[in-house]
From TrEMBL:
Species classification: Bacteria, Pseudomonadati, Pseudomonadota, Betaproteobacteria, Burkholderiales
UniProt keyword Transmembrane helix present: yes
Protein name per Swiss-Prot or TrEMBL: DedA family protein
Record-annotated membrane-spanning stretches: 20-44, 51-73, 106-128, 140-158
Residue span, VTT domain: 52-148
Keyword annotations from UniProtKB, A to Z: Membrane, Transmembrane, Transmembrane helix
Species per Swiss-Prot/TrEMBL record: Ramlibacter albus
First and last residue of the signal peptide: none
Length: 163
């Protein structure tokens, strides 16, 4: 077990497989698993400051594809959620989402509620491509703002990004 885990971690280590590891971390963090991709993005930028835009774009794409997977899982899980249909909170949330439509997926970047929001959008059978486009915009802005904030707060952390 230790050898398998060690080889997996070695394969996914940032210095050797930077952008692919970031993509996987961003994809997994968009699912309902509690994994954050921002530390992987910041770590990659610390090691390779010249990868700023490619890293932000790869993280955005990985996270958006993970959100699209959430949408699909929600779409397919329609019958499972039916047992909660009569709860008052559920009804309010569904009304709110139905009013906003695919634009609600702009909030897919939010911690805790963002990933389930994508699944609920699928469950509500909202249009896939508009939802995906809104997810893409929201997640891109998240990575861009988060990375800019870290660079502002820790100006010497990444060589070449001193203000």
């Amino acid at each position: 077990m230790y050898a398998w885990m060690h080889s997996l971690l070695t394969m996914l280590s940032l210095p050797e497989f930077g952008l692919s590891t970031l993509f996987i971390a961003a994809f997994i963090s968009a699912t309902l698993l509690p994994i954050g991709s921002e530390p992987a993005l910041f770590g990659l930028l610390k090691l390779n400051p010249d990868l700023f835009w490619p890293a932000v774009i790869v993280a955005t794409l990985g996270n958006t594809l993970g959100g699209m997977l959430d949408w699909w899982m929600g779409y397919e899980a329609h019958q499972v959620v039916d047992k909660y249909r009569h709860s008052r909170t559920h009804a309010k949330a569904l009304d709110w989402l139905e009013k906003l439509g695919p634009k609600a997926c702009l909030l897919a970047w939010l911690p805790i509620v963002g990933d389930p929001l994508c699944a609920v959008a699928g469950w509500l059978r909202m249009p896939f491509w508009p939802c995906s486009a809104y997810m893409l915009v929201g997640k891109f802005l998240r990575y861009l703002c988060f990375t800019a904030a870290l660079l502002y707060l820790f100006p010497g952390a990444i060589p070449g990004f001193e203000s």
